[in-house]
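agent> call fold_tool(seq_1)
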Amino acid sequence: MSNEKFILIDGSSMLVTNYYGNLPKALLFEKDPEKKKALYSQIMHNDKGQYTNAMYGMMRTIMKILNEQKPTHMMFAFDMTRDTFRREKYPDYKGNRGDTPEPLKEQFENMEKMLEDMGFQVMYDMKFEADDIVGSVVSKFEKEIPSYIITKDHDYLQLVSDYTRVWLIQTKAETAEELQNKYGAEFGWNSKMASLPDKAFEVTPPLCLAEYGVRPEQIPDLKGIQGDSSDNIPGVKGVSSAAMPLLARYGTVEGIYEAIDECADDKALKALGTYWKEELGISRSPMKALNEYRDIALLSKELAQIRRDYPFEKSLDDFKFELDKDKAAAQFEKYGFKSLLEKL
């Protein structure tokens, strides 16, 4: 097992990043919906008129990962819809996001088919999100094989363990380099010892605590209090700064409420508030907001929690991967990826 490596990729995150990263600037900054549609013809496409800007960027990234990381096992997980079980619990979940542009929607379908044709394991579901699928797969196999998750999504930090690393993709390469330099000496990271994907910062359990203020398993608790604007998870309003010291003391959202519930009267509650201020350094009391939004805090944590019970029957061997160069070449020909053909 020492030479084996399992790379799990959030396909939706990678494709969306490459779509917007490879859009013509005129289209990227255009606000008017009709004018945007008029500019779609400027998006990279093949001779059949199929959009390819996101697919090309993502496949170029994948080829680089295959060349540098040499994984023995791989998988991609994609989101199918926003109407998952989370929206059943909270109808406004991800309600702040606009419709997926048609050129991107088309590329989701074509990218999934391309990866499948090339022999990759591609997984998606109408009720579960990509992170639930990755969480379930990695939780099943991480003790059998070193596992690495590639994503931009901070939700995945909760999957970091002694067996699983998250290669968290930063917006800029400079940010990743700054983080590596910041923690390299203290945590034994050395660029000569570890080759990381472009713009990636490798998160381990101690690095998660050092950089993000909580242990990996506390990420859902942190979002339970702070919320997450990207997913429209509400959290508890006005309590963000108190989240980390409270979680450092009580461990979980439930633990915080246990401490509150142990207070028999107003005097005890006041004493607890004083303790939070003097011992935990919380200057503005979050007591009122925590009590008022208790149900929202618990719901927010539940929404942020990656599920690990997605039902699948694949064995670890099913994720073994070796690139079929003939099939890859056929796909690259189909979509006009001439520079990738040369690399094959």
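agent> call fold_tool(seq_2)
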Amino acid sequence: MSAGRGVLVTGGASGIGRAVAAAFRAAGDRVAIADVNGEAAASAAKELDAFAVAADVADAASVAAGVGRAADELGGIDVLVNNAGIVAGGGPLVDLPLQVFDAVVAVNLRGTFTVTQAVAARMIAAGRGGRIVNISSIGARQPTAGLGHYEATKAAVDALTRTAALELAAHGIRVNGVAPGPVRTPMTAGLISDPAARAAWESRIPDGRIATPDDITPLVVFLASDQAAHITGAVVQVDGGQLLT
């Protein structure tokens, strides 16, 4: 494996995370793919010549162990991409089961916080700065009925991104976010396979199409690069213009 930066991608076994991991590997970086599905992480890592780490971001002990293993394998973590996220169901807020809400908060918000905390502490101790990119959603700013629980966690991730950027700047650690619109991933496969649902989504997008993971990865890689040296605390949408509607 090359001598590039050490990059940890959570939820990296599929979807946006896998595409991000592939992009960093293509750039010559060392990559650890962390995923709650250990077998899927191992499969993706084998294909990409990366490391696999089985870790559940909703479990603090699993995060501590996974981050430690990734840091050991990579020789330190220079870049963290907090991509792990779930929807876990949907429905009006008045009918949403509390366990669905709690599950989404545990992964999307608490998981982002816990992994950031663990990795940032190591970055500070190493004294060589770092880059953190959080995968958010335009749902943090544009509501969709039935997805309020998911969108609330992404709004919280945006707030966490800004606070982390402020607190970590003195340590040379930049923190930014990428907020996609709908993306073709395993998580959205059911929606996209329904012609009516897909048409409804596409009608909200001025560019007229649902994104692919490869539409998202260039911005993630850029924000983690030296070209973005004066950008921190930003959350940038990649949505085909959906927030304009």
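agent> summarizing second result for user.
Helices lie at 15-26, 38-48, 60-74, 98-126, 148-168, 189-193, 195-202, 213-223. The CA atoms of residues 143 and 151 lie 7 Å apart.
agent> awaiting next instruction.
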